[in-house]
What does this fold into?
Amino acid sequence: MVATLGAPVAAILIVVCTVSWWWSLHHRDASLDQAAERHVNAVSLMIAELAGQMIASEDLTSLRRFVIETSRQNNLTHCRVTIGPGQIVADAETSLITTRELPETWSTGGDDGTVERTNGQIAARVPVDVAGRGRAWLELSAPSGLATAGGATLELGLAGVTLAALCAMLLVYHRVRKRLSAISHVRDALFAVANGETDSGSLRVDESLGPEAPAWNTLLTQREEFRRQLTVQNAVQTVRSSTDDHAGLNAACDALPQGMLVIDESRQVTYANGAAAVYLQRSRDELTHALVDELIEDESIRKAIDQIMSGRSRQRSIIELERGENGSDGVLRFIVRPVRREDVAEAMVIIEDITQQRIAEQSRHMFVTHVTHELRTPLTNILLYTDAAIDEAEPDPSVMSRSLNMIDGEARRLERVVGDMLSMAEIEAGARQLQQDDVRLDVLIDQMEIDYTPQAQEKQITLEFDLPPKIPVLCADRDKVSLGLHNLLGNALKYTPEGGTIRLEVTVDGQQILVSVSDTGIGISEEDQSHIFDRFYRAKDKRITTITGSGLGLALAREVIRLHGGDITVESEIDQGSVFTMSLPVPAEAA
It folds into this structure.
């Protein structure tokens, strides 16, 4: 919808600006030409009158000085006084004068004068009558109004206004699309529901898309809660209404994935299913008739039960409890709700294991953030070289070849990045083996210099590479080593201000190769240095809030380098820059 409305508006804007531009230029040219013609007429009449007086008094010296001064003051390109063909009495160029003295009489014929426009000039020929002697002629020319204006200020101004309007429209277009992104995803989720999708995890929307996303996710959560409550209520009613087949009822309740406790007014457990025994790590016999305070230690859950027992609250309460240190043993959700029967206050506690749900949500956010961080640079390079190839007015084979090679290289880099992300998941699962082969580190670094030089030039950053004459051949996974190098150099470019310096130096130290990337960037505090290799961690420096990043790059780089038996370390000072050092072991035969 936004694109459909935006395209006609943009077309109308371009047409209006183009017509306005043409009309303004046309009107300006006409006005300048008219003003220049009036100026030439006024100057020619003034010169003709004074020239006639000087010729009558035979004061040729003053006449010639007057012609020179007047020509210079009025920006005339040509000014002379003649008394016949080839008989030049006075001229702004003194070397062109052919007649030094006036004869007694000369010809009086000729027309009444003319004014013409030719080749950006306005030329005038005015008769000067000298009584009793003859007719002289004043010839002069001056630049036309457009030539006198001599610049493209108006054209540049109109082009700037048009460009600014188009940029503003493009900005508005992108902002509107961003604001509508959450609504678009919610719409897709609704279509999925209509097609029979019931899994809430698949229907959820990333909450970073806009305020509509959390509201939609809240509705999904409430829907799931309603379904759980309905299931539990049906189970409880079945338990209470059927007394003949307790074994069958217990089996039905035990089949529920949620744990269920029913607590009477004396705070004793009157019923517990098998899932509750598993979650609370006790046998069912221990749960039955036990006091709830002995089973649940969390104070917020106890308080919720007390409020229901005392009648102060008839609303359900949801408490999520992490087991182990920082939830290492999983996350349990406790739902406490009232159950009233025969005016006796009772409470029901539903226990759910939401560990996998938490992991799934975190993994989804990690994946989206990681993809954005890792794919932005190659996509930007592809777009830049594509635009450069398209903008060539006359295709240059060398430019086209360089652009296609760069696009091909960046596309392959995208493929490698996606493969690396999958490899990270396999590494974490312990199922990933390195594809070891001979790796020429100098070849990798030469390619990096080609990749990053345009970005460095754009930020006016000096990029230096210092390699020894001979670097041992590594036995390593080429793509993984390349991933680590690209991450270190890319971060240095990202966090180094304009005009800075970045230096990549390779040294061979005994049984290992050291690759250090130093910069004159903003630096890293001591507190942040101990956490920058943690996943999703971003430094607390306020200067990086506008710099995009996922916090996954360094963690991934260190992980793949450690798989090779190496490591990545950092030394940094605030406002002094940083030095990241990557070490890789050298094979025994290469050493």
User: Anything to note?
Assistant: The chain is about 50% helix and 20% strand. The chain has a mean pLDDT of 80. The longest strand covers residues 331-341. The chain has four domains: 2-149, 259-353, 355-433, 435-591.
